[in-house]
# Entry
Amino acid sequence: MANTNRTKGHAGERLYAKEFKLLGYKLCVTSRYGSRQHDDSGIDLINIPFNVQVKVGKQKAMKPHLELKNIAKNILEKFPEDHPVHDYPKLVIHRRECGRGKRRTEFDDTVTMSFEDFKRIIQNNGNNNNTPT
# Structure
């Protein structure tokens, strides 16, 4: 069972690395491949302006807010103060298990982040005039 979960996790990391590449982040790779320091901090994808932890499967005991706190704590411990990783929003991407024979929907892949990070993303988007486009 442990090997199956490990394999699912690694496959999920590779899947989202590919997705970020399709979004234009051509240098995105898994931290297992690119940086032990990031991997040890709970960051699964690097060379993108986000700190991403990928979770795949049921994850019954996962508490996304605690995952985000752990990423923040580990970044403080493992990276110098002036490293840009401190400024990146922290995200937990969860690829839920949808079950055998069930079609995957857009709601089977979710992102969790703090509201502070969400506000920073919106502010950096440049559309702050409060009018719908």
The longest helix spans residues 2-22. The chain has a mean pLDDT of 90.
